[in-house]
Amino acid sequence: MKRLMLLVALVAAILSAQEGAASYKNLKYPPLRPVKIPEVATFTLPNGMKLYLLENHELPLVRGVALVRTGNLFDPADKVGLATITGMVMRSGGTAAKTGDELDEALENIAASVETGIQETYGSATFSALQQNASEVLTTFRDVLTSPEFRQDKIDLAKTELRSGISRRNDDPHGISEREFIERVYGHDTPYGWRIEYATLDRITRADLRAFYRRYFFPANVMLAVQGDFSIPAMKAELEKLFAGWTTQQPPVPAFPPVKTKAAPGVFLAVKTDVTQTFFDLGHLGGVFRDKDYPALEVMADILGGGFRSRLFQRVRTKLGYAYSVSAAWGANFDHPGLFQISGSTKSGSTTETIQVIREEVEKMRTEEVTDEELTSAKESVANSFVFNFDRPSKTLNRILFYDYYGYPKDFINQYLAGIQKVTKADVLRVAREHLAPKDFTLTAVGNPPEFGKPLTALGTVTPIDLSIPEPAGGAQKP
Amino acid sequence: MSRCSQLGIALFLTTALAVAQNLQEFEKRVTEFTLDNGLHFIVLERHEAPVVSFHTFVNAGSVDDPEGKTGLAHIFEHMAFKGTPDIGSTNWPEEKKALAAVEQIYDRVEGERRKRFKADPAKLEALENELKAAIEKANSFVVPNLYPTLIEENGGVGLNAGTELDSTEYFYNLPANRAELWFLLESQRFLHPVFREFYKERDVVLEERRMRIESSPQGKLMETLLATSFAAHPYQRMPGGWASDITSLRVKDAEAFYKTYYTPANIAIAIVGDIDPKQARALAERYFGRLPAAPLPPLVHTVEPPQEGPKQTQVETPSQPLAFIAYKRPDQYDKDDAALDVMSSLLAGGRTGILYKEMVRDQQIAVAVGAEGTFPGGKYPNLFLFFVAPSLGHTIDENVKVMDGILDRFKAEVVDPQALARVKTKSRAELVRRLDSNSGLAQLLNSYYVNYGNWRRLFTELDETDKVTAQDVQRVARQYLTPKNRTAAYTIQPATAPVEARQ
């Protein structure tokens, strides 16, 4: 019997040795070949416009983006939507030389594009052209950037689109929850949390668009990045010539309004009867990239709700089967606090339980150190995937452009990596304690309460979210 | 000849040249080989950065779900992240026993349930409790999500998979020095899949269905459109399957599906990036050579019978109006395929698409209008699909009337030559723009190889687009966009209960 056991053990050892040859545990990796970081040439034109040029000859394409220091944070309170419409109609409303419709035809005939838009903290104009049409497209791009016409018919079209958007804003439950979350955390009465309404759109005129454009679109306020199949000296000369006549001046653009830091705790519920899941968001303000705790907060949020290996994924999805989608992120921005946000959706019947489990996991982050395995896993993941920040030349160009735009050092990404590698378990616990405040959590949920089973009131007093859409002063909307 | 069209031709020739050069360039950098078991590899070298993209294309999808077991292809895709005996278990021999016990008890539960009204409720309850306990025991040996965790820890990005009606695809990217990890993990998940946490994953898959379809007006409308349009062919359902089928799926069903459809000759792999093709081949032989050769799976033999007349369906939802209008069209191998693609681009491509110009820009009766030339898959006869979202204050009926008028005109008149030239130029340029992403290329090369037997078709397909004439477009419009071929699905507001009923 004993001999038999020995034999069994021996056979098992041989078998496991064979399996072992093919085990991930035995793989050895050579060091990663160093990445080539492409050279970005920077210049400032006499009119103050900054250029960022990158040669990339792999494909016969030329592409570019101009960043403009503006944003919808500069909307007047009674004309929310002004920046957005300005961004839309800059391109669709055509230039002095051509209507927007003529631009559409001319550009699509040569498979090119020129687009414009204004986001929260920047405006942008982009173009993409096959190499042989680059000069023609650059001219159009210049015209759109420097002499947009804002024709009235396209202002009307943009308003129709935005009005229809307002009328459709309660159709997607996920969108409702996220919108209500963002607006509550930043505050409905601040530029970070207010929304476009029929009434604010109605007040916007062509004169407003032109004035908004004039205030922010001037050469010293523009950073233009161009990459592709060209030589830097030739492209520089071409851009110099192209923009030589653009000499508009304006006073420097002021800083964006600050974010109010007052929390908006509570449980907020919007009723939708045509859904089988509840969509929810919870959290509060996050931070900025340059915060010294940012790397530790990233690690913390990653362990809580980052990937397949995160605690929320493991517990809510894998163990309980309560959700397909659940995640947490320490949201940070370059210049103003982002959002610490946990999001997910679960069948109506497990709504309250799911949110309770999530709160437990947040509490655990604040009371116990994470494990060595979790910390190592999070750090390895960042370090080993770091190369993907450099896998295309365009990523380097965009990074340099945005770092410059927001006043970050060129090597910020390396500082970030170094910061991640220094994070300890004690750091993770400390930042969770200092930066996560469950009592301040704003919770928004969108679902069908009669199906909830355990009522949401188990989480606190429930404040209803009013989904009605305010009509403008003039009454019901006409087409 | 006008100046415009001369310019058009000159431009066309230069983009054509660029595409031809791309094909020659690709020929130099592509290595293809097939293992003895039938598994095919396409390796494209791109040494610009030390990263590699991997893409596995299984030529089976939800169309291959057996009747009554829809959702099977999808749940197997989820199981392919659950690991192997070596990856994801604290004690495989014990786990294996525990998993077998789950199945035995489940058989007994099903045996009792089949008695229906004669089933003994007390016995059923006891068995169900036993099943729960057995599942918990099996789960106690699991290291959850170890398989995807290994990929993430090693710097893997873009990790995911997708189940479509025609195919199932698995993909991610790794730093180039860790390429061997992919060979190991990918071969093991298709060599020794373990169906652990299967019954919990059914719940996850149901949540996915609730999120994507049941809680989305667009999802519900799409599901209803397909169910109405197809009488017999499995394109009649969404890739995830029906909820009640999903709740009844068993491990043995998933195992049978895997054995039938995940055979080496039914799978293709594309690798794009900083990799030596010789080394790739050696690793492929070593890791994937062990997959046993097996016959090709059966084809779907159900052919959708000809539609005998227009179909119309509606979905009640309190949301703003949406409409899908679909026309039956032949599969992607049909001689009319290129002309149908061109037609979709003419009607709804960019800002110069005819429907956009008339309905969105000029009449402002719609906020969005789109066309999809091939939907929901291309391997079998499918749909030419239109999508309309009316703008505020406008109705679906008004939009559909205008759209029908535009389509009637489109059928009556031959399309403008400049518009046709524009569409052809755009499709060439679009291809050039798609060539700068490793992961995008891996998907494209694989998809063309599996669907057409040759990755080069990614480039040569354009020759067929070029041959399409204005008369071809007119002919296919007349042939396929007919009332008899049509299925329309609209949203409508829920019927409100009569006043008496509410009292």
Question: How are the SSEs placed, and which strands pair?
Answer:
The complex is a heterodimer of chains A (about 475) and B (about 500).
Chain A: H1 2-21, E1 41-44, E2 50-55, E3 61-68, H2 82-92, H3 100-109, E4 113-118, E5 123-130, H4 134-146, H5 152-167, H6 173-186, H7 198-202, H8 206-216, E6 222-228, H9 232-243, E7 266-271, E8 277-285, E9 287-288, H10 294-305, H11 311-319, E10 323-330, E11 332-333, E12 339-347, H12 351-367, H13 372-384, H14 393-405, H15 412-422, H16 425-435, E13 442-447, E14 462-464
Parallel strand pairs in A: 2-6, 7-13, 7-14, 9-11
Antiparallel strand pairs in A: 1-2, 3-5, 3-6, 4-5, 8-12, 8-13, 10-12
Helix pairs in contact in A: 2-5, 2-8, 4-9, 10-15, 10-16, 11-12
Chain B: H1 3-29, E1 30-34, E2 40-45, E3 51-58, H2 72-79, H3 92-113, H4 121-139, H5 146-153, E4 157-163, E5 168-175, H6 179-191, H7 198-214, H8 217-229, H9 243-246, H10 251-261, E6 267-273, H11 277-288, E7 311-316, E8 323-329, H12 337-348, H13 354-362, E9 366-375, E10 382-390, H14 396-412, H15 417-433, H16 438-452, H17 457-467, H18 470-480, E11 486-492, H19 499-502
Parallel strand pairs in B: 2-6, 7-11
Antiparallel strand pairs in B: 1-2, 3-5, 3-6, 4-5, 8-10, 8-11, 9-10
Helix pairs in contact in B: 1-15, 2-7, 2-10, 3-4, 6-11, 12-18, 13-14, 14-18, 15-17
Report on the structure:
The complex is a heterodimer of chains A (479) and B (503). Chain A has helices spanning 2-21, 82-92, 100-109, 134-146, 152-167, 173-186, 198-202, 206-216, 232-243, 294-305, 311-319, 351-367, 372-384, 393-405, 412-422, 425-435, and strands spanning 41-44, 50-55, 61-68, 113-118, 123-130, 222-228, 266-271, 277-285, 287-288, 323-330, 332-333, 339-347, 442-447, 462-464. By secondary structure, chain A is an alpha/beta fold. Chain A has 2 domains: 41-243, Cytochrome Bc1 Complex, Chain A, domain 1, CATH 3.30.830; 266-464, Metalloenzyme, LuxS/M16 peptidase-like (Cytochrome Bc1 Complex, Chain A, domain 1), CATH 3.30.830.10. Chain A has a 6-stranded mixed beta sheet with strand order 1-2-6-3-5-4, with helices on both faces. In chain A, strand 4 (113-118) and strand 5 (123-130) form a beta hairpin. In chain A, helix 2 (82-92) packs across helix 8 (206-216), helix 10 (294-305) crosses helix 15 and helix 11 (311-319) packs antiparallel against helix 12. Chain A starts with a helix and ends in a 15-residue tail after the last strand. The relative contact order of chain A is 0.14. Chain B is an alpha+beta fold. Chain B has 2 domains: 32-89 and 142-288, Cytochrome Bc1 Complex, Chain A, domain 1 (2-Layer Sandwich); 311-493, Cytochrome Bc1 Complex, Chain A, domain 1, CATH 3.30.830.10. In chain B, helix 1 runs parallel beside helix 15 (417-433) and helix 2 (72-79) packs across helix 7 (198-214). The longest helix of chain B has 27 residues, at 3-29. Chain B is globular. Chain B starts with a helix and ends with a helix. Chains A and B meet through helix 3, helix 5, helix 11, strand 10 and strand 12 of A and helix 1, helix 5, helix 6, helix 7 and helix 13 of B.
